[in-house]
Amino acid sequence: MTTETSKMLKRRDFLKMAAVAAASGGTLPGTIASAAAATAKARMHVVIVGGGFGGATTAKYLRMWGEDAVEVTLIERNPAFVSCPMSNLVIGGLKQLEDITVSYDNLKSKWGVKLITDDATAIDVARRTVTTARHGTIGYDRLVLSPGIDFVASRIGGLEGNQERIPHAWKAGPQTTLLRKQLEDMPDGGVFAMHIPRAPYRCPPGPYERACLVANYLRQAKPKSKVLVLDANGEIQSKKGLFTQAFERYGALIEYVPNSALQSVDAASLTAELEFDSIKADVLNVIPPMRAGNIATTAGLPLVNDAWVDVDWLTLEAKGMPGVHVIGDALFPAPAMPKSGHMANQHGKVVAAAILNLAAGLPPNPAPVVMNTCYSFVDGKNVIHVASVHQFDADKRQPMPVSGAGGLSAAANEIEGKTALAWARNIWADMLA
Amino acid sequence: MKLKIAIAALGIVGLAGLAHAQDPNLARNLAATCANCHGTNGKSLGGMESLAGEPKEKLLQKLNDFRSGDKPATIMHQIVAGYSDEQLALISAWFAEQK
């Protein structure tokens, strides 16, 4: 088919024509006839597990682009969406949890998504079913897993089962509020110690933004205190120069210590044991090592490093598992692709387009593009960004960052402080409104 | 009947050729990469420019000015550099069609 022909005939019009021709008794070539038959039978049912940046976007865009060709069920354990991006502002006392919470109501009422508030506990790929904790077993034609990350707390001695005493606050919600409360209760002169796991982890700049926003609060409320950043990595993992400048501006309020892999913790005394050091904290915020969300790691999906799901980048299907799509932080990333909410939203659009093409008997888009922007607050007003654009490389079979594109803020600035908040409003609406 | 002629023509060309053709929704898919910041279908909730319904030539001129540096930006000059001229033209035309 020529480019002109494909431009003349939009897919939906094409299928309508095919269906009309079939109904009027016209003879059709095999592929067209089967595509028409597919639209005539029951609608395709897509089940999505996980209603974060990836899953919620997929749900909305499948219904917006596919309209009545597709029935969408979203299984999400939380009754409302709470955003990880901007949650450091809650920890720093600049926003409330309600400011970063968005309802799922529009997905239901405006977009006709069936929402099931429950845990997905198992997948049967052969039978094409998902089992839930309280809503039985649900059949699907195609499955989209957007399970985010889960923690491997067992890799740090003494951490497992102690997340109330030693919060991670790396999934927004009650943990965010808990860490804020601990910070408020900390006496002046106290030590807020935080631990960053080895990369890759969710939201590369997030821990450094957190250090800044905790220090921003301490500077005003408890100036004799200190943020101690124990980084398992050898250096700052994102926006290094800009965060280094920000840390310097906080002076003695922030102490950054690279190569500080946490060996164990003592929950009773809030002691962090490093290889050669032992640190007593007043608040201990350990971001544990992480891997793809549990439903992905227990379902027999292909994992890289026993942690992240390996996918075909045109359809986002798990390799060797047609019909099971995986997106977001759970993926083994393409080169320079961050684990971010923005990127998960972009994956959601690629997978929605691919599923609708496949349902119509078309190949997936051979040239998908995804991009990322990430804003970090270094204080209450000033923000720094990192951006990248990733174009699919047909030879490498994966998206590659475009050389010469993307980059960083020249310096922290107030203009991007406003842009960051506008970004949040618009991306939350792009997923959920 | 024009309809049957069109269907027959498609049958002759065959669908196999599609594997190497441009996706019929390429412009829509590319434009969706902008929606995180500029709103679904280019309809911003505020704080970012709305793109929906803006004339194609105006959008394309702005994008080119970001690329050349004629229009100062915090981030758009870095993002525009990631897209080809053809992609930017498709994106601009698609947003221009949104009401």
Largest interface pair: A-B, 68 and 44 residues
Q: How far is it from the N-terminal to the C-terminal residue of chain B, by CA?
A: 33 Å
Share of β-strand residues of chain A:
15-25%
Query: How many strands appear in the DSSP assignment of chain B?
Result: 0
Number of discrete helical segments of chain B: 6
Pairing-aware structural class of the strands and helices of chain A? alpha/beta
Work out the helix count of chain A. Answer: 12
Average predicted local confidence, pLDDT of chain A:
92
Shape designation of chain A: globular
Give the % helix of chain B.
40-55%
List the helices and strands and how they pair.
The complex is a heterodimer of chains A (about 425) and B (about 100).
Chain A: H1 3-8, H2 11-23, H3 30-40, E1 44-49, H4 53-66, E2 70-76, E3 81-82, H5 87-91, E4 101-102, H6 105-109, E5 114-117, E6 120-124, E7 129-132, E8 137-139, E9 142-145, E10 149-151, H7 174-185, E11 191-196, H8 206-221, E12 226-231, H9 240-249, E13 254-257, E14 262-266, E15 271-274, E16 278-280, E17 283-286, E18 290-292, H10 294-298, E19 303-304, E20 308-309, E21 324-326, H11 341-359, E22 369-377, E23 383-393, E24 398-401, E25 407-408, H12 414-432
Parallel strand pairs in A: 1-2, 1-9, 2-5, 9-21, 11-12, 11-17, 12-13
Antiparallel strand pairs in A: 3-4, 6-7, 7-8, 10-18, 14-15, 15-16, 19-20, 22-23, 23-24, 23-25
Chain B: H1 2-13, H2 26-32, H3 35-38, H4 56-68, H5 76-80, H6 85-97
Helix pairs in contact in B: 2-6, 4-6
Describe the structure.
The complex is a heterodimer of chains A (433) and B (99). By secondary structure, chain A is α/β, with parallel strands linked by helices. Chain A is 31% helix and 25% strand. Chain A contains twelve helices and 25 strands. Chain A has a five-stranded parallel sheet with strand order 5-2-1-9-21, covered by helices on one side. Chain A has a four-stranded parallel sheet with strand order 13-12-11-17, covered by helices on one side. In chain A, helix 9 links the parallel strand 12 (226-231) and strand 13. In chain A, helix 2 (11-23) crosses helix 3. Chain A starts with a helix and ends with a helix. Chain B is globular and about 35 Å long. By secondary structure, chain B is mainly alpha-helical. Chain B has six helices and no strands. The model of chain B is unreliable at 1-19 (pLDDT under 50). Chain B has helices at 2-13, 26-32, 35-38, 56-68, 76-80, 85-97. The chains are: A alpha/beta (433), B mainly alpha (99). At the A-B interface, helix 1, helix 2, helix 4, helix 11 and strand 22 of A face helix 1, helix 2, helix 3 and helix 5 of B.
